[in-house]
């Protein structure tokens, strides 16, 4: 359908209306200028407007809470329906798994006893990491290339900036902005988040950096020494002092010359509940942040767009 | 009709229509409210690990602007963009700049073209939406120092394809907006 354009805004001879429209344009142009100024400030100091964002998150918290409950409920419904379709196959597979697991459990028990005996010999006391609090993810920046999520807890529950957040499956991210009852989490998939990791098989150290597209980039610290293979599992190494060691972070999927592209161990989309952990060594946090600032941008010409 | 209360015509919801006009609060407030609600979609059940959702707040703004060119004042991009910045996760100010620029650009486009149609509106929206998604990704990349051109491809496609759907929803809201609720 073709139609004539709308009547334009010219109001005729009314002075008042003319001034009103002129003022409108002035405000619009001022908006562009002011926007550029604000943008410039937030480019140099990303935390400059944290207070406004935190307030906004607090306002939207009930909405996100309801959404999070809907998410877990709908996941339950889909899982229940899906379970009917492959019940038989699943039953056979599970029976096999249980038999294998029983054998493993016996070995595991023996190892545990041996471990306890050796620890008692050496006098090691396990540092018990008590979580700060449990929470739900109530929102995320799903349309932006920055990867933030919003937690349903804040400083009232003891959450502080820099604390790591994990789900049952693995690391989710770390807290970067804290409000009274909400907190903003920088996800592992954000390009700004760099996590020191080690390979579970041999302790090879590496960094995990987000790619903002749901994947992450595993970059070796010493390139050329070792190659990564598909399926290599990486856990936090504890260096830098922010993330406690041993939390699963990523699985390598596409090895390349100086590292690998990988998947997250725990997708935030599947995480119903997450746990906020205390910063591993709060004093070392500043050092890590300085190191992250100094980290070079990842190579863009590695042949893997 | 099996569900009479879900009729396609919102006008049927109002029984008495003689001597009644649209409620001024609804008529003027609904566009603003709907755009702000669309901006708050990040607080939806979707917790995404990649940019998958289209920028629904901006799409709603564009749909209202194309449907009712004189309804939103030309300065509307400033407050609405600011509100979007609070929730979008973009560096603060990117919404203020881009939404204000969009309102000015739409004024220029309205001046240039004498005639309007569905395809032309869609093309206009496609150009503006593509530019918007690319520029927001650019601004976000400036902060992290890590430009990511390839991640936004699917998002641009989805955004452009969804524009007629958003326009349709906005058109429904427009009819609700003008329901004769107020006694004259």
Descriptive labels:
heterodimer, A: 305 residues, alpha+beta, six-stranded antiparallel barrel, 13 strands, elongated, B: 184 residues, two-stranded antiparallel sheet, globular
Q: How would you describe what is shown here?
A:
The complex is a heterodimer of chains A (305) and B (184). By secondary structure, chain A is α+β, with helices and mostly antiparallel strands. Chain A contains 4 helices and 13 strands. In chain A, the strands form 2 sheets. Chain A has a 6-stranded antiparallel barrel. A 6-stranded antiparallel beta barrel of chain A has the order 7-8-9-12-11-10. Chain A is elongated. Chain A starts with a strand and ends in an 11-residue tail after the last helix. The model of chain A has no long low-confidence stretch (mean pLDDT 77). Chain B starts with 19 loop residues before the first strand and ends with a strand. Chain B is mostly helical. The model of chain B has no long low-confidence stretch (mean pLDDT 83). Classes of the chains: A alpha+beta (305), B mainly alpha (184). Chains A and B meet through strand 1, helix 1, helix 2, strand 2 and strand 3 of A and helix 3, helix 4, strand 2 and helix 5 of B. Strand 1 (2-4) of chain A pairs antiparallel with strand 2 of chain B, so a sheet runs across the interface.
The succession of helices and strands of chain B, N to C, reads EHHHHEHHE
Largest sheet: spatial strand order of chain B: 1-3
Largest interface: A-B, 76 and 68 residues
**Tally of DSSP helical segments of chain A:** 4
In terms of DSSP E residues, the strand content of chain A is 15-25%
Q: Based on CA inertia axes, which overall geometry of chain B fits?
A: globular
Which strands sit side by side, in order, in the main sheet of chain A?
2-3-6-5-4-13
Question: How large is the share of residues in beta strands of chain B?
Answer: 5-15%
How much helical structure, as a percent, in the residues of chain A?
25-40%
Characterize the main sheet of chain A.
6 strands, antiparallel, barrel
* Helix content class of chain B: 55-70%
Main sheet characteristics of chain B: 2 strands, antiparallel
Q: Quote the average pLDDT of chain B.
A: 83
Q: For the terminal residues of chain A, how far apart are their CA atoms?
A: 42 Å
């Amino acid at each position: 359908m073709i139609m004539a354009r709308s009547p334009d805004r010219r109001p005729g001879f009314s002075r008042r209306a003319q001034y009103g429209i002129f003022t409108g344009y002035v405000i619009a142009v001022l908006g562009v200028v002011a926007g550029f100024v604000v943008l410039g400030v937030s480019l140099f100091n990303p935390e400059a407007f944290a207070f406004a964002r935190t307030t906004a998150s607090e306002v939207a918290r009930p909405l996100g809470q309801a959404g999070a409950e809907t998410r877990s409920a709908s996941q339950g419904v889909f899982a229940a329906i899906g379970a009917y379709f492959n019940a038989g196959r699943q039953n056979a597979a599970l029976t096999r798994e249980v038999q294998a697991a029983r054998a493993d459990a016996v070995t595991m028990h023996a190892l545990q006893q041996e471990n306890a005996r050796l620890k008692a010999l050496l006098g090691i006391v396990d540092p018990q990491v008590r979580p700060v609090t449990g929470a739900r993810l109530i929102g995320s920046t799903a349309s932006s290339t920055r990867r933030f999520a919003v937690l349903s807890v804040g400083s009232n529950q003891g959450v502080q900036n820099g604390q790591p957040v994990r789900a049952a499956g693995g690391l989710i991210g770390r807290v970067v902005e804290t409000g009274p009852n909400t907190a903003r989490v920088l996800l592992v998939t954000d390009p700004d988040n760099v996590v020191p990791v080690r390979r579970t098989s041999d302790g090879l150290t590496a960094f995990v950096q987000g790619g903002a597209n749901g994947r992450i980039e595993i970059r070796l610290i010493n390139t050329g020494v070792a190659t990564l293979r598909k399926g290599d599992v990486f856990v936090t190494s504890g260096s830098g002092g922010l993330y406690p060691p041993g939390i699963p972070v990523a699985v390598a999927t596409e090895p390349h010359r100086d590292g690998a592209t990988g998947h997250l161990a725990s997708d935030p989309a599947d995480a119903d509940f997450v746990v906020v952990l205390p910063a591993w060594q709060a004093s070392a946090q500043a050092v890590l942040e300085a190191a992250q600032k100094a980290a070079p941008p990842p190579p863009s010409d590695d042949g893997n767009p | 009709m099996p569900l009479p209360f879900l009729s396609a015509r919102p006008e049927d919801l109002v029984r008495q229509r003689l001597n009644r006009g649209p409620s001024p609060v609804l008529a003027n407030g609904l566009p603003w409210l709907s755009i702000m609600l669309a901006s708050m979609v990040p607080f939806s059940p979707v917790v995404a690990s990649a940019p998958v959702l289209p920028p629904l707040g901006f799409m709603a703004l564009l749909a209202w602007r194309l449907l009712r060119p004189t309804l939103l004042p030309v300065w509307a991009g400033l407050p609405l963009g600011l509100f979007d910045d609070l929730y979008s996760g973009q560096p603060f100010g990117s919404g203020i700049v881009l939404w204000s620029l969009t309102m000015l650009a739409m004024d220029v486009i309205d001046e240039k073209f004498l005639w309007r149609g569905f395809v032309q509106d869609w093309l206009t929206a496609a150009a503006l939406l593509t530019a918007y998604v690319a520029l927001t990704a650019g601004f976000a990349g400036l902060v992290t120092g890590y430009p990511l051109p390839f991640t936004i491809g699917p998002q641009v496609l989805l955004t452009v394809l969804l524009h007629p759907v958003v326009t349709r929803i906005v058109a429904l809201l427009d009819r609700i907006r003008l329901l004769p609720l107020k006694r004259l």
